[in-house]
């Protein structure tokens, strides 16, 4: 539900809540007009009671509207996305040159705010350009990969296994290469990823859109583990 849709629902609810008070007020005014000539004959106490009831009725109505209005504004403020940083926005990871040197050790860098691992693409850029998932993520141009940490099987967080230099899911044993390509287990595809761009020397990762991972059978690099597995099944 978008913030605009939610605001319309709150406005409609406020209007519906006001209708009973409006109808009661209208009946009171109608009754007052029909017997307007007799008001002077009513005792002072009765006239005072009528005025008090109208005052209380209007007070309750205005209080209800004020409450609903504050509730609507608070709800919209709470639900409206603030994409100034973190997951769901474009994240400035840092200098592309510095990151390239840091990732040269072949150890992925986990970015907590974006919930992804940053790695260098180890395959041929020309080959990456022919894979739709890699093309959408700009892998062939940037040379980087931002891999979503969630296993595409059932959504478990996938840690990095340093001995094997693979990502290995502890829940059901799915395994992925250093570039997130499917290698083993029940996962239906490779790890999902995000688009990476280099802008004015800075590495920008757009976590607003999750790009589905490459299909099973995609092998552009590291077909075998390089050491012992961390997860055995």
CATH architecture of the largest domain: 3-layer Sandwich
Here the CATH topology of the largest domain equals Rieske Iron-sulfur Protein
Strand percentage: 15-25%
CATH class of the largest domain: Mainly Beta
Which class of secondary structure composition applies to the elements? alpha+beta
Main sheet summary: 6 strands, antiparallel
Number of folding domains? 2
Concise summary:
With 233 residues, the protein is an alpha+beta fold. It contains 6 helices and 10 strands. Helix 1 packs antiparallel against helix 2.
Descriptive overview:
This protein has 233 residues and is an alpha+beta fold. It has two domains: 3-79; 90-211, Rieske [2Fe-2S] iron-sulphur domain (Rieske Iron-sulfur Protein, 3-layer Sandwich). Helices cover 38% and strands 20% of the residues. It is built from six helices and ten strands, in the order ααβαββαααβββββββ. It has helices spanning 3-34, 44-79, 96-102, 125-128, 132-136, 139-142; strands at residues 90-95, 109-111, 116-120, 144-148, 160-161, 166-168, 175-176, 182-184, 193-199, 202-211. Helix 1 runs antiparallel to helix 2 (44-79). The radius of gyration is 31 Å and the shape is elongated. The chain starts with a helix and ends in a 22-residue tail after the last strand.
